Amino acid sequence: MSRIVQRLRYRLELRRLAARPGVTIAPDAQVSARTITMKPGCQLRVDARSIVEAVLDFERVGAVITVGANSYVGASIFKCAERIDVGDNVEIAWNCSIVDHDWESMVWEQRAVDMREWYRSEKNWTHVPVAPVRIGDKAVIGFNSIILKGVTVGEGSVVGVGSVVTRDVPPYTVVAGSPARVIRRLEATGSARPSVNMIP
């Protein structure tokens, strides 16, 4: 397929996405529309000069995903049942998973009901823990990392490659590991920005 045809298809897909209720995409943002699935009442906002290449899976009616200005979200996946917010000047590398829920109950009887409902493309969320995720301004998320429900990654923080983040990350802090733990503190101003490939 020629580049011209690819560009035309991209623009058409993006125009269709931007025309949906609840969707706001800045004119100079770049969004991979074909990797986004939305249910009724969901909201998506992507601000100026941001690039979103990730799969955005809105799993429940009314779920919200926002990406601030001048941010980059690589070929990762967001599974959103309530809310995932990405701030300004954020870098999220490839193959990251950001999830605001547990997906399943710990109780087998409830999981058994869920499996029967999946067959009918249904999902009961009443017994599934859900809590919003927030990635603060200027944060960096290294590739293959996982951010779990209820986590806030503070401003200017760095999540090392392959980390599993289960707790809040303080601002200007490097965390790494599974589960992620604090490696060191960063200067709030005047320090060089780390690379997304950084291994602490």
Q: Can you describe this structure?
A:
The chain has 200 residues and is of the alpha/beta class. It has 2 helices and 20 strands. It has an 8-stranded mixed sheet with strand order 2-5-8-11-14-17-19-20, with no helix packed on it. It is flat and about 45 Å long. The longest helix is centred in the first third of the chain and has 16 residues, at 3-18. The chain has one domain (3-185): 3 Solenoid (UDP N-Acetylglucosamine Acyltransferase, domain 1), CATH 2.160.10.
Topology:
Blueprint: H1 3-18, E1 23-25, E2 30-31, E3 36-37, E4 43-46, E5 51-52, E6 55-58, E7 64-67, E8 72-73, E9 77-80, E10 83-86, E11 91-92, E12 97-99, H2 108-118, E13 133-135, E14 140-141, E15 146-147, E16 152-153, E17 158-159, E18 164-165, E19 173-177, E20 180-185
Parallel strand pairs: 1-4, 2-5, 3-6, 4-7, 5-8, 6-9, 7-10, 8-11, 9-12, 10-13, 11-14, 12-15, 13-16, 14-17, 15-18, 17-19
Antiparallel strand pairs: 19-20
Characteristics:
single chain, 200 residues, alpha/beta, UDP N-Acetylglucosamine Acyltransferase, domain 1, 6-stranded parallel beta sheet, 2 helices, 20 strands, flat, disordered C terminus
